[in-house]
Model the fold of this input.
Amino acid sequence: MYSIIGSGIAGLACSYTLSSFGIDNEIFESGDTRTANNYGIQLSPNASHVLQKMGILNKLDPNMKVINSIEIYSIEKLKKLITLPVNEFVTKNNLTNYYTVSRNILHKELLSSVISCNTKIKQDSKIKKVEDLGNKVKITKQNKSTDTCKKLIIANGNSGSPIFDRISCSPIKNDFTTYRSAVKHSEFPLKINEDTVYLFLGNGMHVVVYPYFEDLINIVMITKNNQDTIIPNSNQNIENITAFLSALEWESWSLYDSKITLNFDISRPIFAIGDAAHSIKPHLAQGASMALEDGYTLGKSIGGEITTKSVHLLMSKRQKRINRVIRSSSLNRKIFHASPIVSIARDFFLEKTNSRKQLDSLKWLYGYKV
Ligand SMILES: Cc1cc2nc3c(=O)[nH]c(=O)nc-3n(C[C@H](O)[C@H](O)[C@H](O)COP(=O)(O)OP(=O)(O)OC[C@H]3O[C@@H](n4cnc5c(N)ncnc54)[C@H](O)[C@@H]3O)c2cc1C
Done:
């Protein structure tokens, strides 16, 4: 029996995969899983591949948007710099689709798959501390009650303060703020295609816009704080958009640069997955995708490997991929938030670059098979 802390994307993907290998598991969840935030998520082909392996992609497909292309614009000039033909790339490489989806829909489908396996989800179980006692693991809840288990998977997301002393995390607040909103398609001041992700690059800020559910479009804006050169070459179109964006209701939160280090004893069946195990900047849209890959890979490894050591070994090999995703997200952040001078060079490069080659350079990411 495995105990899992957290019924987010990683925890549920892992639970369902364990169950499909006939391995009993239970989940401790701090909140009410029905109240998961509703926002849009981009699911790149590596993530939809995991959902296909889990056998739930077909069920989700009717409620997701299939993305045909990613269009990148200069926000100052409101000029298209490049179109990345995602669907062509997917077809050429025989991959599953690039989707956008409501996080609630994805979460609901994962949850109902887990419930269909009769897995017990212990609600209102906020775990405060995990202690490895050598032959068993002690779990202390916030209400001070305790539980023990033999095998544990920590999937409690990015809570900032780890619950297990073998996970260390050093969050440093950076100078970026994220804003997120959703509007009806008809209300957005620019023409938006149902099958396109739009990335607007400015100086020290970028905006991502995409349809994700019914007639809703998701807007995420990340800005560098204290930078007032966002839109220097203003024109009427841009003023309209600025006025529109200013009038929206935004959720906002500060971003932290966290370095998470796992120092696990490989003889012990204790693992961490998803945001609890690594911190990925949002500039490559891979947080949920890595949570799905992690959850499935760990579940499958436990199902297929004989020893705890070999499962740890497989998961530490996976760390190389995670590190590459972290490096690429960090590089994207530099590119997306370039200074005014560098952004001129960036926009020039994007206009001249071969879009197919750009996508081919991401084959390691999108073409990955679990
Ligand atoms: C606005 C926004 C847009 C995003 N867009 C994308 C995107 O386009 N593409 C992408 O791939 N990713 C995206 N992400 C990131 C993605 O949502 C996360 O990386 C992903 O949800 C991580 O999954 P997880 O299972 O590790 O953690 P979570 O989904 O955070 O789940 C953690 C679970 O653990 C529970 N929990 C927490 N603490 C405890 C505790 N102490 N005890 C018990 N239970 C606990 C929580 O209630 C939750 O259910 C986005 C995130 C945001 C906020």
